[in-house]
């Protein structure tokens, strides 16, 4: 296990665009390749050690999981920053696993996300807030989540693990609820994944666990019991809970994830103008707690990435 001071460095992961928010929700949501490059590099500059990336259609902003969509920005990001690249295998929750895994399988990143269980994935409630949309697909996309199950069966999980594991890619295990921690323990017991497990606890997605401090404690206590020192804990809070969840995680010895994929806000009622805005805010919290932000290489060592 990691000893000495390095373990108290806090890893900031930044998720710059995702497949949850739609362009009409914020003028700052990166959509084009240029916007994704600028936002990712700004986040790295501000202190993010890992960049979690999705792709979008540059015209409509619709989630796009084709490898060529990622090719339009990945090389420029890789050559301009030491931050570790984390490619989504979640894509959009409407996509099939065969489509979702393609970019990670092709680009063999240091990290790829892996969603360790199926959940209802509600976004339709956002239609109570957002009424005007630039593109027709946005309203339909949100409304369709009323009947959406984000499918991640054990066969799907094994398929992604097998497809990517020969590439030296390690995983950001997205756990939206307590049962997902047990799913991860199960695939670990079957020898499909090697520790240390990078557990990304997801709070506040409608269909998963809530954002109450007790929910955070419950996730941590359960992960401590199931994985002991064989895991590195990180958290993300959806929407307005983002920085509160990050503060609790950092105080508990955890790592944090921010970025416009997970929240469009930089404080109450203020739209973040970039993911870097949120990285700077969470960095202030981390340093305010007397902790330090991990550099990309320190993150690689803490997570045993291939570098
Ligand atoms: C809640 C987040 N959207 C989790 C996520 O980032 C999933 C993925 O890309 O695989
Ligand atoms: Zn994602």
TrEMBL record:
Keywords assigned: Metal-binding, Transferase, Zinc
Q: Which Pfam families match?
A: BKACE (PF05853)
This chain belongs to the protein called: 3-keto-5-aminohexanoate cleavage protein
Q: Enumerate the GO terms in the molecular function aspect.
A: 3-keto-5-aminohexanoate cleavage activity; metal ion binding
**Source taxon at top rank:** Bacteria
**What is the required cofactor set for this protein?**
Zn(2+)
Q: Which InterPro entries match?
A: Aldolase_TIM, BKACE
């Amino acid at each position: 296990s990691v000893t000495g001071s390095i373990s108290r460095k806090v890893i900031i992961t930044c998720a710059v665009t995702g497949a949850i928010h739609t362009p009409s929700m914020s003028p700052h949501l990166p959509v084009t390749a240029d916007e994704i490059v600028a936002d990712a590099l700004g986040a790295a500059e501000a202190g993010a050690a890992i960049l979690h990336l999705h792709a979008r259609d540059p015209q409509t902003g619709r989630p796009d999981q084709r490898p060529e969509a990622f090719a339009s920005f990945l090389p420029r990001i890789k050559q301009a920053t030491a931050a570790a690249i984390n490619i989504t295998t979640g894509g959009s929750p409407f996509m099939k696993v065969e489509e979702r895994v393609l970019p990670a399988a092709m680009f063999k990143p240091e990290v790829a996300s892996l969603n360790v269980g199926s959940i209802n994935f509600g976004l339709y409630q956002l239609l109570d807030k957002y009424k005007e949309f630039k593109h027709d697909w946005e309203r339909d996309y949100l409304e369709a989540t009323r009947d959406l199950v984000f499918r991640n069966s054990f066969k799907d999980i094994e398929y992604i693990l097998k497809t990517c594991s020969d590439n030296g890619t390690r995983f950001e295990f997205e756990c939206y609820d307590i049962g997902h921690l047990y799913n991860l323990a199960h695939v670990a017991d079957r020898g499909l994944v090697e520790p240390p497990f990078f557990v990304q606890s997801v709070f506040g997605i409608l269909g998963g666990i809530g954002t109450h401090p007790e929910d955070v404690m419950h996730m941590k206590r359960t992960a401590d019991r199931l994985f002991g020192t064989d895991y590195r804990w990180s958290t993300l809070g959806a929407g307005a809970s983002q920085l509160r969840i990050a503060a609790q995680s950092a105080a508990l010895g955890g790592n944090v994830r921010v970025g416009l994929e997970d929240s469009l806000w930089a404080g109450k009622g203020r739209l973040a103008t970039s993911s870097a805005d949120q990285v700077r805010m969470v960095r202030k919290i981390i340093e305010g707690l007397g902790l330090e932000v991990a550099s990309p290489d320190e993150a690689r060592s803490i997570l045993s990435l291939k570098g």
